[in-house]
Amino acid sequence: MNLNFLKSILLFIVLVLVQALVLNNIHLFGCATPLLYVYMIMIFRRDYPRWGILLWGFLLGLCVDIFSNTPGVAAASLTFMGLLQPYLLMPFINRDSPDDLQPTMRTLGGTKFFYYTCITVFIYCLVFFTIETFTFFNWLQWLESVVGSAALTIILILVIENTRKHNR
């Protein structure tokens, strides 16, 4: 088996367990919940097959849905993010960068990785809470959930990336 595949399986398991056991119980101000599992979709290499990203996104979302009691919301949102990930990454990488570039804070640089994270997480939270709410009747609650969850998720991802950057 490939070492990268084993790392992906381990990351998959860790993210599902952390989300199900810890992060789903955090509801800051009654509306903001960190959705850390989107991190896995964000860090796929540039040359990773698109069908593979879609499959990983769907399976990760399905597992999160099973443990979070959100029928199909995370699966649909992560599959959509898997579809967008190569296009969201494109503006932040140079043309002459290697094909196997993995988007991390070290490879992209702090500023580019911050913007990439903000855009990706905000789009994910927008799609996730739009599908979950499925109405704009209480749009203020929806907006608070999107912004609050995106902010918490961005902070967690940047902390993890900063820790990874200094450990290498």
Q: What is the fold's blueprint, element by element?
A:
Blueprint: H1 3-21, H2 38-42, H3 50-68, H4 73-89, H5 105-108, H6 110-133, H7 139-167
Q: Count the helices. How many?
A: 7
Unreliable stretches (pLDDT < 50, length at least 5) are none
Shape: globular
Strand content: under 5%
Which value, in Å, is the CA radius of gyration? 15 Å
Q: Summarize the amount of helix as a percent range.
A: 55-70%
**What is the terminal separation in angstroms?**
24 Å
Structure class: mainly alpha
Indicate the mean pLDDT: 87
Total count of strands = 0
Description:
- The protein is mainly alpha-helical and 168 residues long.
- The protein has helices spanning 3-21, 38-42, 50-68, 73-89, 105-108, 110-133, 139-167.
- The protein is globular, with a radius of gyration of 15 Å.
- The two termini are 24 Å apart.
- The relative contact order is 0.15.
Could you give a short description of this structure?
This protein has about 170 residues and is mainly alpha-helical.
List its salient traits:
single chain; mainly alpha; 70% helix; 7 helices; 168 residues
